[in-house]
Amino acid sequence: MRRLLAVGATLSVMVAGAVLPAAGAQDDRMGWDRAGAPERVLRDGTAEEVGLVARELEQIEPALRDGLTREPTPFYPGAVALVAAEGVVVERTAVGHAVRWADATTELPAEEQVEMRTDTIFDLASLSKLFTAVAVMQLVEAGEVDLADTAASYVPAFAANGKEAITVQQLLTHTAGLPAWINLWSAPDETAALQRVWDVTPTSTPGTGYLYSDLGLITLGEIVERVSGQGLDSYVAEHITGPLGMGDTMYNPPAELLPRIAATEYQATPARGLVHGVVHDEAAWRLNGVAGHAGVFSTADDVAVFAQMLLNGGSYDGSRVLEAATVETMMRDYTGQLSSSHRGLGPELEAWFYHDVLTSAESAGHTGYTGTSLVIDPHTETIAILMTNRVHPSRDWGNINPVRRAVARAAGLARPMTGFARGAAWYSGIGDLLDRSLTVPATLSGDGELLLDLWFHTEPTDVLHVEASTDDGATWQPLTGTVAAGDAVRDATDGVSGDGEDRWWEGRFELAGLTGDVLLRLRYATDTFYSGRGVYVEHLRVVDDGGPVVDDWDPADRATVVTDGWTRVTADGSAVPTAPADALAGLDAALERHLASGGVAGPIAHQLATALHQAQDRLDRGREDAAARVLERVLRHLDNPRRPDTLRPDARSELRGQAVLTLDLLAPVPVAIADAV
């Protein structure tokens, strides 16, 4: 292998001021400290307005439609999905039917079926718990409830059978040791049903473990009623949904709304028949449709308003329902030390099984048994909502988690990558049961090191293994190494996995003692369930005896890389172009997206657009050298923005990388340059 790199003649322009992956950058993403968050009011718009790739969002509707035809039974009769980012609703889709079945086996005549609409009202099931949690936290803010107080101090009967020390906080975080549920529907009335809750015995010592429980939220709903002097439905309407303008959100919807409401299950036990327009959950039904764990009906758009309120730090369109500090308190992880499940004060955190690509330590949301889910990513201000009537006509027809993940995945992948200095990176891909490898040969003298600039977001059990073979791939051994970003350093000897916090990391792996012809391999292996975005490798180098041996920025070295499943992609997820015209088209598309989002504005916007038009003209006339000179001017504009130019870092990163990629394809004669590059 060479110690000098063969690169395009324009490299001296590229390297000056190059946007290298931010391996040393601190994690400065905005999480749930929303005190300084922008006050956004949701509006409809395009993906491009917020810098997203529409192509990825277009995958949502086919994913929803696939759920309609799954064999042997559909996932659901109908569904609605909504995605919003930075206050802009960029996707709203409805498929299938809100009402399709007369009973568990009889399909309604076509003329009696009701098509799903984007404003269909759904039984939210356990998403109702989020409304109860907000109500409790409002009372905490008002000084009327304390999280450390015992629940029995508000509901004395709750103290029975060893529950006297259970606190309000333990109920909110599902650490009270209560059973998941008990039969309430067979109680003769609401009073008798509540008495069954008060009489229940914990199944474990409170505060020692996590067990998701409806009973804790039922108790919290009762606390809200006793402290406020209002029914839970009246309290939520007056203090939450009313101020937020959520006109389609309520308990016990009136009969005139029935044509807009999605039907749920045909229930034989209890003998309720087709449940339509009344709460599906049997316990909430026995509690007259109003309970802390279930009972709220709403639309995708109203749920989006609720989510945006949280992203705004507790307010929406001039109405404040929580203080920003309270929102932050709700979104802390209170159960990670007790369980693999992560809970805030109500919301579920870091739930890979439906947050998918949006998962982080601070991703928040909830699911509902009827087929609903909400995911909120505070780092990108993304909201992903799925509403289905999956229990219509039967709860036994299937688990919709694959569709929940599909919606979150599309929302996450729609955000382009940043930090591609050369406009491209190796990408592992995304999915379950993957075993994908990227292998590079190197000739070593025994004092080498493998260097990687990489970005990763994987489920903890999906691992990038870094390995070497000295017997032509017959056997492999793990390499000792670390990955580092700023002050953060992680041992990577057993592989690289987890949430890389949207940062670029520098990987350093020892090759000491390896001599002769050696194969180096990156192998990405995933398990049966759940995925993150995957792994990107922007730059791969091998140095030995103080000098370069392999550098995949050198086209000749890159040609020696053998891939099995890995691909080279641009920042927006497209396959890396091989023709200058295609690369220039990609650069133009990226500029259009950043112009629409406001990432590029002012005089530089006109300068860049004019330059790209000129480059295209030169290319159309076969003057590749002239097109390259124009693109060098593009790089100078990007490297030296002036007032009153607007050039957001993500826009500069993507545009610069795409320009360098195009120049690499235009460079007619490779030249040798020094190691210092």
From TrEMBL:
GO molecular function, one term: hydrolase activity
Organism: Georgenia satyanarayanai
Annotated FIMAH domain residues: 585-659
Signal peptide limits: 1-18
Domain of life the protein comes from: Bacteria
Protein keywords: Hydrolase, Signal
Name of this protein: CubicO group peptidase, beta-lactamase class C family
Pfam assignment, any one: FIMAH
InterPro entries xref list: Beta-lactam-related (IPR001466), Beta-lactam/transpept-like (IPR012338), Diverse_Enzym_Activities (IPR050789), FIMAH_dom (IPR054470)
Residue ranges constituting the Beta-lactamase-related domain according to the UniProt record: 76-407
